[in-house]
From TrEMBL, chains A, B, C, D:
Its cofactor is pyridoxal 5'-phosphate. Residues 30-299 form the Aromatic amino acid beta-eliminating lyase/threonine aldolase domain. This is Aminotransferase class I/II-fold pyridoxal phosphate-dependent enzyme. InterPro entries: ArAA_b-elim_lyase/Thr_aldolase (IPR001597), PyrdxlP-dep_Trfase (IPR015424), PyrdxlP-dep_Trfase_major (IPR015421), PyrdxlP-dep_Trfase_small (IPR015422). Keywords: Aminotransferase, Pyridoxal phosphate, Transferase.
Length: 348, 348, 348, 348
């Protein structure tokens, strides 16, 4: 079976694994105070061109979202997200578990729109009873979105403007950020993203690491970051401080060496476009075409049955009216041979 | 100024106040273990025809919703509510503060629809990833709704059926329940409501008491209730256990003596219909007409300015396109003279 | 039976009740925006000689403690309290429910000692691993304590100094503050207390009101208070915002008129001293003698049985080795006749 | 420098690392549904001789404690722990963050005593006001303790008995369980431990893995476990569900192959005894001697300065009165050569 069901089905990219092997014997400090974590932080700061950014490594995406949102929001604030945002739907209530409401705006192929956000917030402040409501304190965007789609530079800047106007922070969930940076379409650069977002994370789990996400508190115009006080203590309080912090530090050091991070993204995106071509050629209609590594197709039952004899894919939602929405994903371990085989086997 | 802005602008109904005065000197046990609270509980059990129901008195509506939802839901569960439900919008995130997500379905003049609820829940269970989502564990209905509207018997029974089918509890927020019971249109009786709901509360704050809400865990088919264990301790943990529990007990004892509760509702509803007639007669268009004590009107700016020189009303949402949505509310202290004066003064 | 079991067994002081009756018919704004709440706030500000203090009225003591501690502490901070402090023992975990740890120091007849607090905090900061521990962010003192005892001016000032040295806020729980102010022994004045504490509350429930506590954020040296932002919203989020805020406002307006608050305390304390005299005279040994309205006695089983045929008292802890620790409490409704009767009946 | 500061300073045991390398390329299911996690679970069940035990893998110890305690306790319950227990002191309030109070009993070299636990719980239930207090719902024991010490079989069985008598669950924190199992002194076996505890975890982070802890819900007398419902969803809600669950599964599969887990413990314990001998020989007084891999010494300043030129150690608490309490720890990577070098260098 060809593995196209997600981008975390394989272990680590060979270079990342190699780094783990090579550093295994070293006696290091715990809790992120080791030299590899220090190096990883430094390289991320260089990549975003912000020498004072705050960088912290944790193990998973939902964990990251919970910690960032809970520690950056005030108690009376909620976070605005698209209805399809990961924090809205697929985190088992982790945001609410930490006391905060997710305030939703419509989703367009995974993307929130600046106009909807502005409308939500201005209606809130116009409401005479807003003291009895949850204050919007942050905007959460997934980039790429859960559907692989990307915000344009203009849209991101407009959302940034709204955040400033209404004193909200902007948090960009980059669980798959490398795929955005590796997109062949026009897109913002990593330093631009670090200027637009108050905080973002760049994910390892879905981009060549065994696990790990790097939270980045970016420098604002005054050169300072919005990093929450005693952030290490707060990570610990959320149960997320790894004793062997090195396990993530070593991997991120590798990912941010020679731009491996973006290279993985670029290559996977190319594979994804080949998958789209093959699928379309065989009569599978695209449902959402994205410039990144996630592609969605809509098909009938017989097509679905054929496809699933050839490849593992992800059924995106319960079939309705005989229509199956299927996600196919590429990653660092997707090869030309795999796509060729897909092509060949769908032929039959 | 004529007070039509809400149903808690005056103190207590005279009979309720009298009860407080008469019982003031008695030395009683604290924390709800006094004789008046015992009597109030008993009378509520009689009114709903359920001798084993669990009855608890607390002080406010948001508090009640937070406690009931938090103590009845499991940690991984959320509560389904209409988008306009009080728990969705106007409780400053009190439900999320206690760790639970509010799962919304569309609102039709304040009412959720059985079909939408069924659809939400069945889609949830059909979703292959639902283990990563918030389980729907309860349905929350406001009766009357925040717009004064009422569910039909059939709709309530259908929602009850869905709750049973999907192992959810049904919670009815009766902050204004007396107005529903006093409606002149066809509606369910209090014993019927107690059969349909697993838990409900009947409010005092907005119906003739200074403060107080009575939570009722109803008997299920097996004669038992779903009352959470150590409920007194849990009320205490939520900061809601009054030392002088009597202050609510005495008032509810009065409210449930000689059916005062429903009488207050009936009378206020009649006043509300008179208000509608007067308003319509003077060219104020109804926005939502309800069978209870809350009435909504839509008007232009000059009408709004006229009205607010005569009466205190509640501007329901920020004016848009020159249109003002206004709520007018009657209560135990609304008199025929007040409505006559409204009529006279709008004439000018 | 003579009621000596607590100071909230009777309703409201007659003047307080009268105020409720007289204001009952007025149409007022809700949520604490009524004229009586405004007056009560103003009178409390005058009583503490701080025109800019922030004053908020809520309904109960545990609720107050939970809200003050949760909204003033940062997420990573806990509150230091004596082991016998109300927040440590008798609030069913309400502080932990809102996410904060209670850090305990020894109790001496209900009082924490400055030395123990200093020791706790300096050990914390000396600990090389304190980033993995709960930061002490606040000191909580009960004044009077749960045993009726009072801190000296010097001790309070010393604790204040420690709080400043280690950037902690000082919160004084004055559930029974009027009894402290009415003590015949040397004690701090209300304006002094307001200078020492960053925040305190003065209780109504146990001092002549049906319910209600007044939270006061005091002016600091810079003239500003530490009042949490959007405090009304946060009260609402904790389920504690009363729609008819008047019910507490009217009562506190009465309590702070003509110094009724302190007068109730003074009188009850005098009665308490008479109770001590009577009890001692009849051979009941004092366990803790306090200058306020709570008195503790230790007795054997036969004495306990005699006493409880005469008066309702509070058994303070489970009897051990045949010794009964009993609390007797006076309040606004304790009369000379009651104490005389106690004297007479113990004689038999 | 010789690394003796903790047991997580090196990466993974070579066999564990090898397993990660060998399995890296395999395309596997996520979220713990991969074949290696399945194997690891099976081997743990075999090792404890309980075919129906529930086994779940997460990434860290504080996280494990938070999840187990929060999901097994009812909302109104707290957990009893020794004052020095990890959950009491060194988890930055992670237990309180999830709403539960840690109820402390005295610690004797890291161990709680059955008598103290029984006393605490029986006093609680004897207290007439216990409905206003936090119910003890679980006993938490560290085995080995934070000081390397072990409970005797008799003490564990007695604590088990108390738990049954008072309807509490027994949770054993085995972050370093392999060192207990590898102790040369008389101690319980792993199957015995699984009979005594309702839930325990066996740690990987401090015992040869890069990260990971295995939570085990044991079979009770009726053959069932106390595993919380929808446990995967609850892990997700706590932010602790790894997408590449394999990273822990592969490591635990290796650790529980050929008893590697206990072998690592046995060997490290032997090294620890050699360290004690060497230290004592050089005049360093033992503070606590344990049968496991953690050893404590007390020394004066000049000794401390000498030692820290030779080895990295852990200063256990702030020096007082010129006395330094130092922890030295061995692990899978401690060699005879290291101990010989320690011996040689302390000689100088």
């Amino acid at each position: 079976m060809l593995a196209f069901h997600n981008d975390y089905h394989a272990g680590a990219h060979p270079d990342v694994l190699q780094a783990l092997v090579e550093t295994n014997g070293a006696a290091l400090n715990g809790y992120g105070d080791d030299e590899y974590t220090v190096l990883a932080r430094e390289k991320i700061r260089e990549a975003i061109e912000q020498p004072n950014a705050g960088v912290y490594l944790v193990s998973g995406g939902t964990q990251t979202n919970q910690i960032v949102i809970d520690t950056m929001l005030e108690a009376w604030q909620g976070v605005i997200a698209a209805q399809t945002g990961h924090v809205s739907v697929h985190e088992a209530g982790a945001i609410e578990f930490s006391g905060h409401k997710v305030l939703t705006v419509p989703s367009y192929d995974g993307l929130a729109r600046a106009d909807d956000i502005r409308n939500y917030v201005s209606m809130f402040y116009d409401d005479p009873n807003h003291d009895h409501m949850v204050f919007p304190g942050m905007v959460y965007l997934s980039y790429p979105s859960e559907f692989g789609t990307l915000y344009s530079r203009e849209e991101l800047i407009e959302i940034r403007r709204i955040c400033e106007e209404f004193s909200m922070t902007l948090f960009i969930d980059g669980a798959r950020l490398g795929y955005a940076l590796g997109a062949q379409t026009e897109h913002i650069s990593l330093p631009e993203l670090a200027q637009i977002a108050d905080v973002f994370y760049t994910g390892g789990t879905k981009l060549g690491a065994l696990l790990g996400e790097a939270i980045v508190f970016t420098q604002r115009l005054d050169g300072k970051t919005l990093e929450p006080k005693h952030f290490i203590t707060q990570i610990k309080q959320h149960g997320a401080l790894l004793a062997q912090g090195r396990v993530v530090g070593v991997q991120f050091n590798a990912l941010f060496t020679d731009n491996l991070y973006t290279k993985i993204g670029t290559r996977a995106n190319m594979m994804a476009q080949r998958v789209v071509n093959v699928m379309n050629k065989h009569g599978f209609e695209s449902y959402i075409v994205s410039p990144t590594n996630q592609q969605f197709f809509v098909m009938d039952k017989s097509q679905y049955e054929l496809l699933t004899t050839v490849a593992t894919v992800s059924l995106w939602e319960p079939p309705r009216n005989g229509k199956y929405i299927v996600r196919m994903v590429t990653s660092w371990d997707t090869t030309d041979e795999m796509v060729d085989t897909l092509d060949a086997q769908l032929n039959n």
